[in-house]
């Protein structure tokens, strides 16, 4: 069952300068993103810093207004709502409850002046989950146990906890309202390696128990591979490749994906020979993105057309999409043969 569909999503941030703060340009954080989320499935999002991963997550949870494109939400009764339009109050409340987000840095995502109880109670009270406050407090205790902490911690403040514990608290808060989709934006990148795997296992356990969907954002390919059923590779606000995890790792089609994989030291021997793509330098600026395929300035396989036309995504295998002229040519040739 589908939960969310994102189509041709764009998000541009204005750049303002001068005394009157005129808009003098745009940061094109998302240029054309398509994404589908099915119930119970984990979609990993990878790509270098600045490619728009967080902007995508934040636009889905309505922290940002999209510039163009649509985000449709499929509610449990099978009704479909475009959340980028004005929504009836009730639908908006359901959506806000059903889609929750856990942020990268647990050191600033929890209000230091609030007790853990109040932090976790906030969404519970907003969505009026319980009429009786005592019952709600018991529920908070249960949530703390579920994320591997103690109910007594409810009386304490965030500064009394380690990064890993704080991230558990943030997860308890996010799952308190039983979301259908949890967006995790680099939830472990601020944590020690040993703590990272505990948080990943916790998320996997919770998912197994509740059948919620996850969007898992990370630039750590290892982590994304272990977490995800499907992976989306982003570059400069575009989706360059999208495939079931095993297919992406066995047969990465896009030169950029191949380069990303060859850049992981332990995977290097396996992927190096694929395309001999080395990722050098930085991605271009999203203020002035290159014309055509955004990866062409760094791509050793570029064709004449690459600096003029953005390639359409083609299906190189079932459910495996890749937006690359070279790959599209190969696929067409194979289909003809
Ligand atoms: N609120 C904002 N205002 C202006 N520009 C922004 C804003 N948020 C993000 N950007 C810009 O949009 C682009 C995409 O940023 P985003 O944070 O989505 O990337 P990311 O893939 O999450 O990167 P990272 O891996 O470093 O977290 C960047 O160039 C960033 O500077
Ligand atoms: Mg980010």
Give structural attributes.
four-stranded antiparallel sheet; 11 helices; binds magnesium ion; about 325 residues; binds adenosine-5'-triphosphate; globular; Rossmann fold; alpha/beta; eight-stranded mixed sheet; 2 domains
Structure explained in plain terms:
This protein is of the alpha/beta class and about 325 residues long. The chain folds into 2 domains: about 230 residues, P-loop containing nucleotide triphosphate hydrolases (Rossmann fold, 3-Layer(aba) Sandwich); about 80 residues, no CATH class. It is about 35% helix and about 25% strand. The strands form 2 sheets. An 8-stranded mixed sheet has the order 6-7-8-3-9-10-12-11, with helices on both faces. The mean pLDDT is about 95.
Summarize the structure.
34% of the residues lie in helices and 24% in strands. It has helices at residues 53-60, 89-98, 116-126, 133-146, 163-175, 193-210, 221-227, 245-250, 255-262, 268-275, 325-336; strands at 2-17, 22-38, 42-46, 68-74, 80-82, 99-102, 181-185, 213-217, 230-235, 238-244, 314-317, 320-322. The mean pLDDT is 93.
CATH architecture of the largest domain: 3-Layer(aba) Sandwich
Task: Tell me the number of strands.
Answer: 12
Q: Which distinct ligands sit in these coordinates?
A: adenosine-5'-triphosphate, magnesium ion
What is the element string, with H for helices and E for strands?
Answer: EEEHEEHEHHHEHEHEEHHHEEH
Q: What value does the average pLDDT take?
A: 93
Might you state the CATH topology name of the largest domain?
A: Rossmann fold
Shape: globular
Q: Which ranges are low-confidence, i.e. pLDDT below 50, for 5 or more consecutive residues?
A: none
Helical fraction equals 25-40%
């Amino acid at each position: 069952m589908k939960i969310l569909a994102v189509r041709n999503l764009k998000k541009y941030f204005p750049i303002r300068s001068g005394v009157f703060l005129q808009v003098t340009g745009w940061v094109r954080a998302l240029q054309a993103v398509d994404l589908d989320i099915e119930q119970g499935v984990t979609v990993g999002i990878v790509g270098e810093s600045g490619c728009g991963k967080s902007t995508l997550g934040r636009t889905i949870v309505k922290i940002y207004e999209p510039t163009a494109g649509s985000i449709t939400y499929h509610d449990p009764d099978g009704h479909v709502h475009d959340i980028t339009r004005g929504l009836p109050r009730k639908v908006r409340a359901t959506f806000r409850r059903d889609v929750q987000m856990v942020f990268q840095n647990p050191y600033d995502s929890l209000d230091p002046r609030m007790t853990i109880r109040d932090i976790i109670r906030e969404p519970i009270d907003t969505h009026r989950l319980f009429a009786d406050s005592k019952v709600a407090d018991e529920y908070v205790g249960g949530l703390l146990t579920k994320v591997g902490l103690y109910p007594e911690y409810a009386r304490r403040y965030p500064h009394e906890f380690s990064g890993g514990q704080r991230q558990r608290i943030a997860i308890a808060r996010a799952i308190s309202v039983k979301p259908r989709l949890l967006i995790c934006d680099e939830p472990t990148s601020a944590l020690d390696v040993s703590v990272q795997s505990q948080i990943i296992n916790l998320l996997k356990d919770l998912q197994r128990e509740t059948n919620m969907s996850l969007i898992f954002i990370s630039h750590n390919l290892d982590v994304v591979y272990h977490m995800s059923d499907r992976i989306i590779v982003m570059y400069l606000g575009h989706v360059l490749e999208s495939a079931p995890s095993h297919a992406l790792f066995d047969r990465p089609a896009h030169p950029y994906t191949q380069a990303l994989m060859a850049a992981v030291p332990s995977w290097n021997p396996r992927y190096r020979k694929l395309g001999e793509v080395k990722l050098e330098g930085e991605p271009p600026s999203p203020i002035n993105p290159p014309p055509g395929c955004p990866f062409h300035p760094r791509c050793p396989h570029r064709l004449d057309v690459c600096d003029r036309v953005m390639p359409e995504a083609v299906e190189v295998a079932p459910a495996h999409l890749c937006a690359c002229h070279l790959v599209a040519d190969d696929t067409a040739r194979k289909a003809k043969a």
